[in-house]
């Protein structure tokens, strides 16, 4: 059963620490998305890739967030330094452009103290 | 700019009652439309999607949705709700395809026995 895998599922860290979240998209999918979910803002698109190339990261705070796809099986979202306002659930999703739908991972819940 | 409006933040229904969740979108052309469901602590699961053709689409778990171009709406329906349907439901639009999804704020459904 193909699924998007995210690690870690839960992360508690202190303000100022670096946080890296990882995502393994479904094999064969050519688009990868990072979303952030909070009670106040709902689901926000942070960044997305097509064929490993970054297409849009306008939703990300550039000074502290970075997203990369070092290869087709791994996408990373890094926060450095982390702040309490970054506390949220971060979702990775993958899909193929010819179907238009996205498959979501179970999310990484980040708490920054 | 494209946007999605879900007017109802919370809805409570009795088990066995019918359900309709509202969704309106703002987009110049006909977008790709989706409904996703999120159970607590889980990722988002696709219920159904509309790309073109028949305006009444069937999805999983007995859900259906109807696209009405004149009203820019894509409302989700279920004739008889089960207690396991309690979750949060998100309507999403993908302008022009390419998987990029813009989500509504979500509607949280509670089901009374």
Radius of gyration of CA atoms of chain A, rounded to a whole number = 13 Å
- Low-confidence residue ranges of chain A: none
Structural category of chain A is mainly beta
**Mean pLDDT score of chain B, rounded?**
92
Query: What is the CA–CA distance across the termini of chain A?
Result: 36 Å
Main sheet characteristics of chain B? 6 strands, mixed
Largest sheet of chain A: 7 strands, mixed
Shape of chain B: globular
Oligomer: heterodimer
Helix fraction of chain B by DSSP (H/I, runs of at least 4): under 10%
Shape field of chain A: globular
What is the number of strand segments of chain A?
11
Structure annotation, total helices of chain A: 0
Mean pLDDT of chain A: 93
What report would you give on this structure?
By secondary structure, chain A is an all-beta fold. Helices cover 0% and strands 56% of the residues of chain A. Chain A has strands spanning 5-7, 10-13, 19-24, 31-38, 42-50, 53-56, 65-71, 74-79, 88-95, 102-104, 108-112. In chain A, strands 2, 4, 5, 6, 9, 10 and 11 form a seven-stranded mixed sheet that branches. Chain A has a four-stranded antiparallel sheet with strand order 1-3-8-7, with no helix packed on it. In chain A, strand 4 (31-38) and strand 5 form a beta hairpin. Chain A is globular and about 40 Å long. Chain B contains no helices and twelve strands. Chain B starts with a strand and ends with a strand. Chain B has strands spanning 3-5, 10-14, 19-21, 24-26, 32-38, 44-50, 56-58, 64-68, 73-78, 87-94, 102-103, 107-112. Chain B has 113 residues and is mainly beta. The interface between A and B is medium-sized, with 22 and 23 residues.
């Amino acid at each position: 059963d193909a699924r998007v895998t995210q690690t870690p599922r839960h992360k508690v860290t202190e303000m100022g620490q670096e946080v890296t979240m990882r995502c393994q998209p479904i094999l064969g999918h050519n688009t990868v998305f990072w979303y952030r979910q909070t009670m106040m803002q709902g689901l926000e698109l942070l960044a997305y890739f097509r064929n490993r190339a970054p297409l849009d990261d306008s939703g990300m705070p550039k000074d502290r967030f970075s997203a990369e796809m070092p290869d087709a099986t791994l996408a990373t979202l890094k926060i450095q330094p982390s702040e309490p306002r970054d506390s949220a659930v971060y979702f990775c999703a993958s899909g193929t452009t010819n179907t238009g739908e996205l498959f979501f991972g179970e999310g990484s819940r980040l708490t920054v103290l | 700019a494209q946007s999605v409006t879900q007017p109802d933040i919370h809805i409570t229904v009795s088990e066995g009652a019918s359900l309709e969740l509202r969704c309106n979108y703002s987009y110049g052309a006909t977008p790709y439309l989706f409904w996703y469901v999120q159970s607590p602590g889980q990722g988002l699961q696709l219920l159904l999607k509309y790309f073109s053709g028949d305006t009444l689409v069937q999805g999983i778990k007995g859900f259906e949705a109807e696209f009405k171009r004149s009203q820019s709406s894509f409302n989700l329906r279920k004739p008889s709700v089960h207690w396991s349907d309690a979750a949060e439901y998100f309507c999403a639009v993908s302008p022009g395809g390419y998987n990029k999804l813009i989500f509504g704020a979500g509607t949280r459904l509670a089901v009374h026995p």
